[in-house]
């Protein structure tokens, strides 16, 4: 807001100054125009020469070079045969798979003691595996410590 007010005041003072010193303003302006034309013209000439210097000779050299160039044959790279993928190894049986196979094979179901004897796992490990298999829905518990395939 301050800038807007300051700008308006400057314009008003400028208009008053031009009206009061009209003849002096034209004299200053008349002396200022030739100086600006000289400086602007000199700058334009300088920039023109600078641009000419950059482009001078590059077009001709490129045209001459293109005439004498022969097409270059690129060597063809031999592609090595892709290695055959190794046959996938069968996954090793997990502890959960071992317990599930025992439960799956029995027709009447299996108790915790039998699972311990056949697998050699501790009671805690058997309980953890059974819990996981129950959550997956693979086995059901007929009664406490006795499991059957779902």
Oligomeric category: single chain
- Strand tally is 3
What's the pLDDT, averaged over the residues?
Answer: 81
Global geometry? elongated
What count of structural domains?
A: 2
Widest beta sheet: strand line-up: 1-3-2
Secondary-structure element series: HHHHEHHEE
- The end-to-end distance, rounded to whole angstroms, is 81 Å
- How does the helix and strand content classify structurally? mainly alpha
The percent range for helix content is 55-70%
**What's the gyration radius in Å?**
48 Å
Roughly what fraction of the amino acids lie in strands? 5-15%
Largest β-sheet summary: 3 strands, antiparallel
Uncertain segments of ≥5 residues (pLDDT<50)?
Answer: none
List keywords for this structure.
mainly alpha; Arc Repressor Mutant, subunit A; 2 domains; three-stranded antiparallel β-sheet; 6 helices
Give the arrangement of secondary structure elements.
Elements lengths: L1 H19 L1 H34 L2 H11 L26 H11 L4 E2 H8 L3 H14 L2 E5 L2 E4 L1
Antiparallel strand pairs: 1-3, 2-3
Helix pairs in contact: 4-6
Please explain how this structure is put together.
The chain has 150 residues and is mostly helical. It folds into 2 domains: 2-66, no CATH class; 95-149, Winged helix-like DNA-binding domain superfamily/Winged helix DNA-binding domain (Arc Repressor Mutant, subunit A, Orthogonal Bundle). It has 6 helices and 3 strands. A 3-stranded antiparallel beta sheet has the order 1-3-2. Helix 4 packs across helix 6 (123-136). The chain is elongated, with a radius of gyration of 48 Å. It starts with a helix and ends with a strand.
């Amino acid at each position: 807001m301050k800038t807007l007010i300051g700008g308006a005041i400057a314009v008003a003072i400028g208009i008053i100054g031009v009206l009061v010193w009209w003849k002096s303003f034209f004299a200053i302006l008349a002396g200022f125009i030739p100086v600006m034309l000289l400086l602007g013209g000199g700058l334009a000439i300088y920039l023109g020469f600078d641009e000419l210097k950059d482009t001078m000779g590059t077009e001709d050299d490129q045209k001459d070079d293109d005439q004498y160039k022969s097409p270059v044959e690129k060597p063809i790279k031999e592609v090595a045969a892709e290695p055959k993928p190794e046959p996938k190894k069968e996954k090793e049986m997990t502890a959960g798979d071992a317990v599930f196979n025992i439960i799956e094979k029995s027709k009447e179901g299996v108790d915790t003691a039998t699972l311990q004897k056949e697998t050699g796992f501790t009671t805690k490990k058997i309980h953890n595996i059974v819990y996981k298999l129950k959550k997956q829905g693979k086995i059901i518990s007929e009664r406490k410590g006795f499991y059957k395939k779902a």
